[in-house]
Amino acid sequence: MKSLTLIFLMSATLLFVGCAAQMSVQTDTTVTVNELRCEYHTDPLGIDIASPRLSWIIESAGRNYSQSAYQVLVATTPEKLSRGHGDLWDSGKVKSNSSNQIIYEGRKLQSNMCCNWKVRVWDNKGNVSSWSEQARWTMGLLNATDWKAKWIGDGLVRKEKVGKERKNGRTVDKFERRYLPVTYLRKEFAVSKPIRRAYIYATALGLYELYINGERAGDDYFTPGWTEYQKRIYYRCYDVAGLVRSNGVNVIGATVGDGWYIMLHNMIHAGRQTGLLAQLHIEFADGTTEIIGTDPSWKMTTDGPVLSSDIYNGEHYDARKELTGWAIAGFEDSNWKPAVPSEDVNAILSAHPGAPIQKVMEIKPVEVTEPKPGVFVFNMGQNFSGWARLKVKGDAGIKVTLRFAEMLNPDGTVYTENLRSAKVTDSYILKGLGEEIWEPRFTYHGFQYVEVTGYPGKPDADAITGVVVYSNSQADGAFECSNPMLNKLYSNIVWGQRSNYFETPTDCPQRDERLGWTGDAQVFIRTGTYNMDVAAFFTSWLITLNDNQYQDGQYPVIAPIGDPGSSPGWSDAAIICPWVIYQVYGDTRILQTHYEQMNQWIEYMTKNSSNLLRKCWGFGDWLNLDAKETPKEVINTAYFAYSTSLMAKIATVLGRNEDAKKYEQLFTDIKKAFNDAYVDANAKVMGDTQTAYLLALSFNLLPKEKRALAAEHLIERLKEKNWHLSTGFLGVSLLLPTLTELGRLDIAYQLLTNETYPSWLYSVTQGATTVWERWNSYTKEKGFGDAGMNSFNHYAYGSAGQWMFSTVAGIDTDGPGFRKITIRPRPGGNLTFVKASYKSVNGDIAAHWRIEGDKLKLDVTIPANTTATIYIPAKEAESVTESGIKAAQAQGLTFLRVEQGNAVFTAGSGQYKFESQI
Ligand code: BGC
To answer: Cα-flanking dihedrals φ and ψ of residue 227, to 5°?
Structure first.
């Protein structure tokens, strides 16, 4: 209801803008196009997708910006691009309001090609922005025949078959692990003319580090990643033009450690020998090219300082054996041997699409104690994944040993029982040449405490630095509110993610497990997307999960490695996770890529059900607290229905309308079977547990007339526990959203803010710095829970993070990819303010609400090229103002309706400051 004057003023502005556009020489300087990315990465190297997807973020000073068209130029050289010559692709002016998931449609891209690009955009009045800064991506090796290099290694057997054993009901080969030194490999080669470009491609069976003339290539660790090695091995690409000398002798050096490939958990598809495959592509200024690849002409030794390395057990280093200068020219390598061909691998080599594992931050200890003479314990103040950097000075031959733990025993020594068989021990033998600084490379630990023994003298606090290492995705979310306990919970959730998004979404980072458990991944993924940009991370892991699918259509419960059989709620990650990635990032390709395989899972479930009831084995509502468990068949059938309902939506998105109808029908049939078998006339769901009702309500399995009754049963189940939860991994992620949906925000807040056991904040009151595996992994009264399964860094219960963003702060997507945004803060739980932000694929979103007396103030940021529906809690819609004027009259806002005590507006991009009477 804009006033006439305002409409007049606005049209005058439009007219003016229109004239400016007609003169059309002026570009719109209030708008910039930034953060160009290709396949979710900034300037990625070695993309192996024939038609990569591009994205950008628009920043606009004013309100209501929307893109009406774009133009992308892609050129083989930066010079051509500067001249505006897109020799690979000139998209022309494309009418579109999309700024991400833009598919490259230019000339066919070739292996090892460099693609430089820029973009400009038009708004809906025809004004054009300046060109963005230049960005680039390079193409990887697109054909198997591009690989000229040969796999090489040291020929040593690191895992020996020693018979057979029964595992998960199957007879499998039994292996014994041999702890052998890390392999060093080197190759000298001469260059005698100027270099234009140089890229090196590398991969390993095991983990590698690569050096050119002594300089480390790249800053990522645990390369090439973790895949289902029998099917696929990822490779990486590095731009090393700055490292290769144009005139003289060069050296490529590599170290290869055992990593996940040899790790003993990997018994089903066991690797036995490590190996390296690398090739350097040099393009000279005169246009000629040369490839230097691994082959038996490389030299190798295992007589180096890294005595052994293992993901679970740690790394052992003897500095006296350092090979100084081994990766630079002229090193005396006459006692090195020729490299030998490594074991045969017949896997697809593909470019790593995921997030790189990097050293992201460093932590200083908060306390050093000496619980026993000569035993020093460094408290890092935070549980995390990574390692400790050691600083030490002493005589050659002194051995310092580091052990890692999440908790302390009552006597102040480190508590390691819960690490099970993982030794989690590093050691360092001094070379005795002054101050020595060391950190491992091929192992990691999940820890808060470092025990140091053998240290010469008493260590200073700076003897240990915590190095935080994880799959480094852009941090997206921030959350802060007036309840410090909730802030700590949020911090614990984020640290749980940092510790466990480690190449695969792992269950925990400390014990002899650290595996890509699918169930944990699916319950947490939506929270994960709020905290970090996890599109690339999941693109990578979902490839692995699909590589792990069994021929009969079953998805495993762990990926990589797989595990015989599937479990409902776990295996369904293969459908749930791509759906969430689509929801958050608008990514239809991920749905397309895995569609056929997802369909096979539905077919498997259909075949392996009795009249659509899934009476099969499963993990159930893992770690739930109910005396009577939710019956597995209820959970299993509910997940079958849920995955089918998602497939109907996915088929619709992909335009497969026949399939969509088929899945909708199947969903209806499963729903009917579920009701006939498990729901009685009073809407009691078999099992009568919190989780049974949560599944039925959240997955839309009940007829309309039974929903209200079932909701009452759910509420009774909570009430009888004195408003406490009893759910396990599966139920917990549904709890708060379902209660909100049922209009019981009050109970949801109560559950979230409870401090008594069992609750989210209980572990916070017990001093947790990460989310625990169990609601009571530790209590001040009773001490530690069962060490057989007791991780202090398990993110599954952290799935409440989603609700904190979507409902407490009120930031959510409305449809795919945050093109339409919902801002709907729902004050409650005695909170007086919440300040949250989230970086979406379209740019920054923020919501900051606070209650001041009888006023609610709400500051909102909506990114350019999106629209939002904003709900402002208000006694009366009339009372709502924006930047001091009636909200309905403010630029960019349109009043829509009053809904459940909220004044609802649509908004274009921009920053808004609302106030209302409440
Ligand atoms: C893991 C879990 C996993 C579970 C499956 C555990 O050992 O740590 O997080 O989901 O097994 O039951």
So the answer is: -135, 180
Between CA 910 and CA 248 the distance in angstroms is 57
Nearest to 447 by CA among 390, 381, 492: 381
Alpha carbon nearest to ligand 1 atom 8, residue: 507
22 pLDDT higher than 60 = no
d(CA 434, CA 562): 48
Query: What separation in Å is there between the alpha carbon of 351 and the centre of ligand 1?
Result: 30
> Residue 515's closest CA among 573, 564, 556, 558?
558
Atom of ligand 1 nearest to the CA of 729: 10
Query: Where is 713: in which H helix or E strand?
Result: helix 704-719
Is the full-model pTM beyond 0.90? yes
Q: What was the pLDDT predicted at 269?
A: 58
* 869 closest CA partner among 794, 800, 819, 833: 819
**Residues labelled catalytic:** 513, 773
Residue type (1 letter), 216: R
Nearest CA to ligand 1 atom 11: 517
Does the beta carbon of 563 sit less than 6 angstroms from any atom of ligand 1?
no
- Pick the atom of ligand 1 nearest to 622's CA: 12
For the Cβ of 40 lying below 6 angstroms from any atom of ligand 1, the answer is no
As a whole number of angstroms, the distance between CA 611 and CA 608 comes to: 9
Q: Using a 6 Å cutoff on CB, does residue 619 contact ligand 1? A: yes
Residue 632 has pLDDT above 70, yes or no: yes
524 in ligand 1 pocket by Cβ < 6 Å?
no
Q: Tell me the angle at which helices 729-741 and 690-698 cross, rounded to the nearest 10 degrees.
A: 60
Q: What's the pLDDT score for residue 26?
A: 61
> What are the two backbone dihedrals, phi and then psi, of residue 813, each rounded to the nearest 5 degrees?
-90, 150
Q: Are 489 and 772 in contact (CB under 8 A)?
A: no
What integer pLDDT is reported at residue 563 of this predicted model? 74
The per-residue pLDDT for range 237-263, each reduced to its tens digit, is 999 999 999 999 999 999 999 999 999
What are φ and ψ of residue 95, in 5° steps? -70, 115
Mean pLDDT computed over every residue of the chain:
94
Q: Is 854 exposed, middle or buried (0-12, 13-18, 19+ CB in 10 A)?
A: exposed
Span 443-447, average pLDDT: 98
Which residue's CA is the closest to the ligand 1 atom numbered 5? 619
253 token code pair: 């050096």
Query: What pLDDT does residue 11 have?
Result: 38
Query: Does residue 622 line the site of ligand 1, with CB under 6 A?
Result: yes
The whole-angstrom separation of Cα 16 and Cα 215 is 57
Between CA 804 and CA 530 the distance in angstroms is 10
Measured between alpha carbons, how far is 122 from 95 in angstroms, rounded to an integer?
A: 9
Whether the per-residue pLDDT at 6 is higher than 90: the answer is no
List of E strands, 516-652: none
Whole-angstrom distance, CA of residue 810 vs CA of residue 904: 13
Q: Which atom of ligand 1 is nearest to the CA of 796?
A: 9
Question: What separation in Å is there between the alpha carbon of 158 and the centre of ligand 1?
Answer: 28
| Ligand 1 nearest atom to the CA of residue 619, by list position | 12
For residue 160, CA distances in Å to 340, 506, 614, 892 come to 19, 27, 40, 68
Measured in Å, residue 306 CA sits from the centre of ligand 1 at 32
Range 310-323 average pLDDT: 98
